[in-house]
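User: Please predict structures.

Assistant: First:
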Amino acid sequence: MTPKPMLAPQTEEAYRRLRRMILSLELRPGEPLVERKLEERLGVSRTPIRAALQQLAREGLAARSGRVFVVAPLDLSELEEAFEFRTWLETQVVRVAASRRPNARELKELLASLEADLDPEVELEKATDFHLALARLTGNRFVVASLAQVLGRIYRARYLEITRPHGAEAAQSDHLALIELVQQGKGEEAAAFMRQHLERSRLALLRSLEGSALLART
């Protein structure tokens, strides 16, 4: 994810709890995030709640609606553009990574992201770590920053995708196959597989969102 600024302890607590409630759909898209009610619900004062809401808005999880924040809906056009951008970027990433081949330390970093976890949020962080670790193999900080930005922007959609039945297992299997292709220096095969991996993710997500109230109304 795109790095967030350091938050005061109470703000960090409110941010993490609200973020998890939004990601898990305990707080539904379009639901008002009224500071007074959140103060009672979270047992945290209004000032850190307001700061937490501002951070969630920067991440695209909350949005202003008049004088209050609401849980942001998912924007289908943004998701399509994000997957298109990821395909352009990450196919080139694995081509370059395969041409350089990871050393032992870099390979260890990639493999660490494949360790399974029962917590979906941790699982998604590991998936994010994997894609960013691949990007770092290019040696180009702008590539890493660009990928981090788009992954952070569609974080909630990726959370929904990875929590579908067998979503995490499918992602891990694909990631292992990508590591093997990169390690073997098979750049074009890795690029083709990355394209397939992202397309499978895109189609699975769109199927799960079809007709969903989670999407923005246009």
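Second:
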Amino acid sequence: MRLKLFPENILERLALLSGRLPEPLLELYFSMGISSTLIAGLRLNIFELVKSGKNTWEEIVRETGSNPEGIRTLLDALNGFGYLKKKGDRYLLTRKTEKWILGDFIESYLLMADIKDRFANLEEVIKRGGKSDFHDNKNPEFWEHYLIGIYKFSKIASKEVAFRLRMKRGGGRVLDLGGGHGLYTATLLKMNRRLQGVILDLPEACKIGKRIVKIEGVENRVRFLEGDMREIEWGGGYDLVLFFNIIHIFTEEENIILLKRAREVLNEGGRIAILDSEFPDKEDLSAVAGFNQLLFYLINNSRVFNESRIKKWVEVAGYRRIRRSRLLTVPMTLFLTAQK
């Protein structure tokens, strides 16, 4: 999946086909504009105001307390990028804005805005080396954006993932490592009413996760373990252990230790499931793989590991029947299962 320049008329198409336009420069120009404009619109609550009917330039200036010309230029940019449309003196939501920005994903966009702020120091981090850990942040507002944002985004794939991991009707226990928002566990539990869940994550994440599992209606079947998964006890007697979006946080040595610990707490025949960013075993990367590698280095001083390397760890940890599946809802991810 890549962002590409898309001509809006025949002259622009001919200019691109001529090979005489500096495409990388235009990609930089427009990507900078799209992300900055969209974030400003979100943080100034422009889309909610338009939805509520306060959608003239004057009304938006008054409600946001902003500079009139500043708001005019922002509204024009949002219109140009296709997030708003204009009818007379009023601004209206486009279909994609109504569906994808004001739907379930508003917190996911705010999370992306928080992450974009980190890129202001990218050159310095690259020159001096990464040191920060995204998860050391103690700001409650950060964790609210982070967990709720991931929770809402995970709804895209949670039902497909749960279907592929469906458990026997006899019940069982699932351990969700670093699964703070709780959606994957909750979805599994709703598919099997006799299943019990344990979610292990940092205290800041568990605080929000407890709210989410209550929203999902499974709070009576979920227990939270608070702490660093590398340091606290996990319990035992599990039939499934989830490693969802945590492999890229840890080093190779730490991941092997965690995989071995998971095997120790699994019942015989129990499974692990790994869901993480895809990093293909080839020289040229996709845009998603390349960017995620940079992103995780910036925010966690960590990296994405390729599929063959992760499979090797799983083998070293003593698992069998290692299988890779393709998820239709999020095809740019790695989804592995293995059995004790």
